[in-house]
Automatic annotation (TrEMBL):
SUPFAM superfamilies: Protein kinase-like (PK-like)
Record-annotated Protein kinase domain positions: 111-422
Annotated organism of origin: Candidatus Bodocaedibacter vickermanii
Gene: ubiB
Presence of keyword Signal: no
Name of protein: Protein kinase domain-containing protein
Length: 422
């Protein structure tokens, strides 16, 4: 009997915990609605997410990037937070490895560290050495992740339904569908292996300073992913490096995320601080390819068209661009509301000069507040599914740039990517 079939009690306990936590939030939300205090909802949602662990923390991080859903300080904390969890002990690791690679799995390794090097929401990583000599990272998925995700998302759906009735500016149906699809994809480690090899080949055909670890297919399964071990510093260390090196890191990070998108229509959908490392020379080591989003050329054409619309201050072109993104029932008031957030995200890319990404820490907060007020006037909007991870990437990478504290010509960086499209 494996870990996934032997822990029904743990699954029931988890569902009960999630249900209790979010039900409590729902009661508070209903109370806020009755008393007319709709502004209380973001804090209620924050309290609920703060009591939960595991996959739903990823959901919290994504919701933190949607303007107005959470208080500014909480959103910032969630975006920086790694979904850390206590690692599971050696008995679990031994059983999981035997189930995935067979009872003789230790013979495939000359060394396997019993203590996890990292533990996050979906699994944990162990450093090891293959019998052939390669130093590798073995990522093991925790038991019952599918049922955990389904239970978390079902409960979250109820809470977001209350959100829509309490703060009627966003229709979250597409957001929920996108979260469900992408989170379930993250459980398929064979898919992640294919994504990793795709990015490895993609960058291998360029001179860009990006490293994608090599995968080892014969040592990987649906719930075990074995890849090359790559050493590097995390962003919180890099922010203390010299300004010259930080500029190089910022340029490389921008290219690492946006070259695949604008040249090949594929986006690493989780630019979390824990999902990349930096070498002493400033190269970017990209990690965690479980969440990869493909975009059709028609959508990317809409992204470029919106850039042009903002450059020309053309409301009609902006309307066409949002239609290409998948927004529906557009009005002039809704386009104006969407443009507030678009101008905040595109602003540095339109400004042909060396500058910080944001002129002040208050800039993003002010933009989010303005969007909320404008949507209250224009009516509820249903963001298309594609918006979720485009926005997540923009805000996530933007947050990294702000931490690095560098000034660059973002316009020229962006132009070098979109103009070289063949």
């Amino acid at each position: 009997m494996n870990d996934d079939t032997s822990s029904l009690g743990r699954r029931i306990g988890r569902v009960a915990h999630v249900a209790t936590t979010l039900s409590g939030a729902a009661i508070k939300t209903l109370g806020a609605k009755i008393t007319g205090n709709s502004d209380a909802f973001p804090q209620v949602l924050t309290e609920a997410l703060g009591k939960l662990k595991g996959p739903i923390m990823k959901v919290g991080q994504i919701l933190a990037m949607v303007p107005g859903m959470l208080p500014d300080d909480v959103a910032e904390s969630l975006m920086q937070l790694q979904s850390q969890a206590p690692s599971m002990g050696w008995p679990f690791v031994r059983r999981r490895m035997a189930f995935e690679l067979g009872a003789e799995w230790p013979t495939k390794f000359t060394h396997f560290e019993k203590e996890a090097s990292a533990a996050a929401s979906l699994g944990q990583v162990h450093k090891a050495q293959l019998s052939s000599g390669e130093i590798v990272a073995c990522k093991l998925q925790y038991p019952n992740m599918l049922s955990s995700i389904e239970g978390d998302l079902d409960q979250l759906r109820l809470l977001l339904g209350l959100y829509e009735r309490t703060v009627p500016i966003l229709d979250t149906v597409n957001i929920q569908h996108e979260l469900k699809e992408r989170l379930k994809e993250e459980l398929d480690y064979r898919l992640e292996l294919r994504n990793m090899e795709r990015f490895r080949k993609l960058f291998g055909n360029t001179n860009l300073p990006v490293i994608v670890p090599k995968s080892f297919e014969s040592y990987s399964t649906d719930r075990l992913l074995t890849m090359e071990w790559c050493d590097g510093a995390d962003l919180m260390v890099v922010k203390n490096w010299s300004i010259t090196l930080k500029r190089r890191v910022a340029e490389n990070l921008f290219q690492a995320w946006y070259y695949p998108l604008y040249q090949h229509g594929v986006l690493h959908g989780d630019p979390h601080f824990g999902n990349y490392r930096i070498t002493p020379e400033g190269q970017i080591i990209m990690l965690d390819f479980g969440c990869v989003r493909e975009f059709p050329e028609s959508f990317l054409a809409g992204v470029r068209k919106l850039y042009r619309a903002l450059e020309l201050n053309s409301a009609s072109e902006a309307n066409e661009a949002y239609e290409m993104w998948g927004f529906e029932n557009l009005t002039s008031e809704l386009v104006d509301a969407l443009n507030i957030w678009a101008k905040f995200l595109y602003g540095p890319l339109l400004d042909d000069r060396i500058r910080p990404l944001v002129e002040s820490p208050q800039e993003g907060k002010d933009a989010a507040k303005a969007v909320i007020q404008a949507l209250k006037q224009s009516g509820k909007v249903r963001p298309p599914k594609e918006f979720v991870f485009m926005d997540r990437a923009a805000v996530g990478i933007g947050s990294a740039m702000i931490h690095l504290g560098v000034e660059l010509n973002w316009h020229q960086l962006f132009q070098s990517l979109v103009e070289s499209k063949k």
